């Protein structure tokens, strides 16, 4: 008839153990564990905008700088994202996240240094203009300070 039964020897040849298979499986498992542990204990945030619609929405303040002298760092964002101050004003940055952050001017004119959870760092704005800043640890975090006379 066209189909023949396999004998025990023929069957064992088909299911023969391949020496490299367990080694390959072990190597892949170790690599997967190593990659999974690379992130450390801190969670990385999701990108700020998750859709094109969210990316084009204006800031809650309508895009205008908020008047004030304090910026809170929470959920991997500066709040408010844009702030205005007068020359000579002190602006206090408070880190409410468990991850460390900085507020570092793009042009290098100010830097709060590393702020751990619940740390505060302040800057004094010395000249008029608009200054963009970011977090050294998380460069996707951005804010601006508008300094007026």
Spatial gap, N to C terminus: 99 Å
Strand-residue fraction?
A: 25-35%
Low-confidence segments:
36-63
CATH superfamily of one domain: Cupredoxins -  blue copper proteins
Biggest sheet character: 5 strands, mixed
Shape: elongated
Q: How is the largest sheet built, in terms of strand order? A: 1-4-9-8-6
Structural class: alpha/beta
Number of alpha- plus pi-helical segments: 3
Q: Can you count the beta strands?
A: 9
Task: Supply the CATH architecture of one domain.
Answer: Sandwich
Please give the CATH class of one domain: Mainly Beta
Summarize the helix and strand pattern as letters: HHHEEEEEEEEE
Helix content: 10-25%
**Radius of gyration using CA atoms only:** 28 Å
CATH topological fold name of one domain: Immunoglobulin-like
Mean pLDDT: 76
Question: What is the multimeric organization of the chains shown?
Answer: single chain
